[in-house]
Write a structure and sequence with these properties.
The protein is mostly helical. It has one domain. Helices cover 44% and strands 7% of the residues. The protein is built from six helices and two strands, in the order ααααααββ. Strands 1-2 form a two-stranded antiparallel sheet. Strand 1 and strand 2 form a beta hairpin. Helix 1 crosses helix 4.
Length: 163
Amino acid sequence: MDETISLAVRFLDNVIDRNRFPLPQIDRMTKQTRKIGLGIMGFADLLIALNIPYNSEGALHTATTRMAFFQSRAHLASAGLTAERGVFPAYRGSRLQTLHQRRRNATVTTIAPTGSISLIATVRPALNRHILNTRSSPHHGRRRTHLASSSLRPPRTRTRPRS
């Protein structure tokens, strides 16, 4: 995973230089901060595969630990690029300079809308379809959402045409 994250950060940094922006102002601002948006998709699929309810402590722990790893590796990869490419042009006076963190990119991760791009990646575009029922839990009287087993099966296909 380290190598994949590092490669993705390098790729996204390259995209900034190769991209054709619609306006010179966008080109200039983008190249000043070199913000990239590395993110993840398929979190709902991961929770389903691990049989972890979405609104559980286990889901929160899974998200926290995986994203801490993901973000720290992305920051390291961006910092590594400074040796060969330098810091982003707007680094001087930035929050990162104040923190003495030299990076190629002002930001490296994002939570992007993944509705349509998730279809290309063959992961679930949203979780709400897979949360099928909510019931009271004996634990502290809280309501818990449970993934129904039907969400783990492939959808049924129609055998007869609709009338």
